[in-house]
Amino acid sequence: MCFKPDRRTRPSGFFAHHPPALLDYPLCQPAPETLHGVHYVATWLEGLYLVNRFLHSFPAATLHKRLLAHHADYDALHINLFEPVFTSALGLALAGGDVSGLTLCEAEREKLYMLFHPAKGRPTPHYDALLKKAVDRLCTALRLWDSATRRTLAAWAGALLPRLTAGSRQGFALLLPTL
Which residues have a Cβ under 8 Å from the Cβ of 20 and sit 6 or more positions away? Predict the structure, then answer.
């Protein structure tokens, strides 16, 4: 689904691109601040729609369990619900696990750590290709077929790369908890 704003010029003085903080769901990748008015709102709604579709690919009990591992009071906080779920699902796709349960075992987490921290003398993998392949595997498993969704999720996976390559074993335990 694509939200197409009216292309007529609208004054940005109405500040539609500055929603009140409590009404603005924090997206994993926020709408660009360079957009104004209805263009900002349309881009934000497209992101929210994608996040909603992704989260609805999992059973509510599975989401609840994963989000509790992220923060015990997740349902009372104004936090992004997508990122911890996406991170776990992407990790499982990279490790060759079952993405539907969002549960990484210790062996899968260790496999991911070794993938992003190769031993000395071993070649560094091409992370962009690995992430794209993992996103394709993830989208296929969740039946998210459209190319726009795959491109957006691949971009969001790329944004996680610095955290994955810089993380220690303890950091991986926090980023990708076993449930």
Answer: none
d(CA 135, CA 129): 10
- How much is the pTM? 0.81
- Measure the CA–CA gap between 53 and 129, rounded to whole angstroms: 24
Helix/strand/coil percentages in the chain, nearest 5? 60, 0, 40
**Cα(56)–Cα(43) distance, rounded to whole angstroms?**
20
How far apart (Å, rounded) are the C-alpha atoms in residues 102 and 4?
34
Give the confidence band of 123 by pLDDT, cuts at 50, 70, 90.
Answer: confident
Q: How far apart are the first and last CA of the chain?
A: 34
pLDDT over 80 (residue 119): no
Asked if 35 and 15 count as a contact pair (C-beta separation under 8 A), the reply is no
Structure tokens at 94: 């990279």
Residues in contact with 135: Cβ distance below 8 Å, sequence separation at least 6, in sequence order: 90, 93, 150, 153, 154, 157
